[in-house]
Amino acid sequence: MARVLLIEDDMNVRDALTLALKGRDHEVESAASGEEGLELLARFAADVVVLDLMLPGIDGFEVCRRIRATASTSIVMLSARGDDFDVVGGLEAGADDYVVKPVRSQVLEARIRAVLRRTDSVPSPVETYGELRVDRASLTVSRGGRRIALPPMELRLLLYLSAAPGQVFSRQQLLESVWEHDYLGDSRLVDACVQRLRSKIENVSAEPRYVQTVRGFGYRFGPV
Amino acid sequence: MTWLRGLRARLVITFVLVGGLSVVGAAGLTYYKAQLNLLTGVQNRLLKDFRNRVLLLSRDVALPAGDAELALLAEDLEVGDRKVYVVKDGAIPGDARVTAELRARVLRRPELAWQRVTRDGVPYLVGGSRVMLSAGGTPSGITIYLVESLEQAASDQAAVLSAAQTAALPAVLLAVLAGLLAARGVLRPVADLDRAARRLGEGRLETRLPVRGGDELARLAGRFNETAAALERSVGELREMEARSRRFVADVSHELRTPLAAATAVTDVLEAGADRLDADAGTAARLVTAEITRLTKLVDDLMEISRFDAGAAVLNLNEVDVGPAVAACLRSRGWSSDVTVDLPPDIRVPLDPRRLDVIVANLVGNALRHGAPPVTVRVRVTGQAVAVEVADHGPGLPADVLPHVFERFYKADAARARSEGSGLGLAIARENALLHGGDLTVAPGPGAVFTLTLPRTRPAGKAPARPGRRP
């Protein structure tokens, strides 16, 4: 059971999704606009925001950015089917995953569950890679002594990659392991998440040092 | 000799013929006239003069005269390089230019006879006449022969002929030139027209011709422009109509999506509750749920095909190992145990995994639904491409159906008007293959054999990503 904030402008879709999510034992609050949603988020400590991109007033991309700026709440976008522009824009704005409308509640449920999967803390010594310190016990990351706040999916990606430094993972492997997509998923999820992660842990002006691209194969952590 | 049939050759030949004939005709006429004036004129004058002298002299001659007198008479008659022989009738003057034929004619006739003779390349006029006594025209028994050179007249005549010949060559050359010029004048617009017509045929409907002057060719160019403009207008209207209808389909699908989003979200609730309803209501709930699922699939497919039509389909290429990708597609749909696979490892191809999944799922889904087991999926490398072959062992597709299977909403069997698919699956699969720079083909086998070919290198020159259309 999770606390879900649903931001969707169409009343019937909103009601239907609320009904469906409540039927799956989630606690649901809903908003009809981005402004209302952001206001609600301040009071309602949501675990996940289910966010429609096409909204009156401030659009879903902007809502996404504002949520990311202040909170590490997980975000699942409701995308118009295959409108790639929306998907890419939403992922860049910080969404963790997306579902395509019309969506069956079991699919949305699976995506919500995946992004909310708690990263288990493991009692292990703090790992240091160059300037980067990864603490798997407290699930914190710091660089040059300064703590970096990472949203859940970015943290999970970093922890997954850094658990096997030097090993190359294909996008498909990462989708299956980190996002729990059990079919040929959208590798742009991985690419967008890597970009967001890099913007926080890497030296922006230099070549990526921690999360490296292996052309034609995928990504690997280090070696540092 | 095709060039002879060309307009240029025909025009030049005509001009040369007309020019040449004119020159030859004019020269011929000049020559004829010159001959009359020069040669015949000289000849007539000479003969007349000769005749007068003979008449004049004949009076003074005492008959019969002796040879010495005759020789004297001949000397009197000789003027310039004219040679005169005065002999008794029937005697032969010692000059080869006075031929036997002429002598015979002189004896036969009372008046002057003449002949033209050429000796050593020099033309001569040879005349002969018996001298008549003035009283009653009785023969005097004396014959006078005259030999006069016509060299001067002949050379004058030759000069005229050569002048005509000299004039003829430049005239013919001029005719060739004029022919070429005329051909150019006609052929340039014709060549322009030829080029323009070809461009038009290639689909460049904005092609127009410059209209110069007001001749027939200019009118033809004008007509061509009108026709091209009319064609452009019609095609433009047709394209506009087609674009409108495609936009309409896209818009309708879009509009259907919001109500479907609401309905789809609650199908699970409805399904879960169906068991608690009474039999009829439960059946109705399940039916509605199933139909919403179908409708959603149809709208999804319509949206997808609209994106291909609008050129808004985006290819997200990744280096993908084809074998595991196909295996994952089958596994995620629970088909792994129903399909015999031959998937060699390490065949890496740049492709969009989601689109490969769509294609393979559609082909295998069709084979499982409509074909008969065993359904096989084989991946193999063929030259510069990778082929994914999906085959079943059912009755296959009739030959008349094969060319149409990739058409939208094409149903092989009219009775099976309501199939599980949207009727767009194969059309979408093929569009996906084409988007990769590959192809999707069907061939008769034991059953139906669908082959997806994908290039092993990235499609060159084709921008993989085009900005998507915002809804």
From TrEMBL, chain A:
Modified residues (4-aspartylphosphate): 52
Sequence ranges assigned to domain Response regulatory in this UniProt record: 3-116
GO biological process, one term: regulation of DNA-templated transcription
Keywords from the named record: DNA-binding, Phosphoprotein, Transcription, Transcription regulation, Two-component regulatory system
A GO CC term attached to the entry: cytosol
Gene Ontology molecular function, alphabetical: phosphorelay response regulator activity; transcription cis-regulatory region binding
CDD domains, sorted: REC_OmpR, trans_reg_C
Segments of the chain annotated as binding DNA: 124-223
Domain OmpR/PhoB-type: from-to ranges: 124-223
Superkingdom of origin: Bacteria
A Pfam short name: Response_reg
Protein name: DNA-binding response regulator
Automatic annotation (TrEMBL), chain B:
Molecular function terms from GO: phosphorelay sensor kinase activity
Alphabetically ordered keywords of this record: Kinase, Membrane, Phosphoprotein, Transferase, Transmembrane, Transmembrane helix, Two-component regulatory system
Pfam family, one: HisKA
Signal sequence region: none
Domain HAMP: 184-236
Location of the Histidine kinase domain: 251-458
Full protein name: histidine kinase
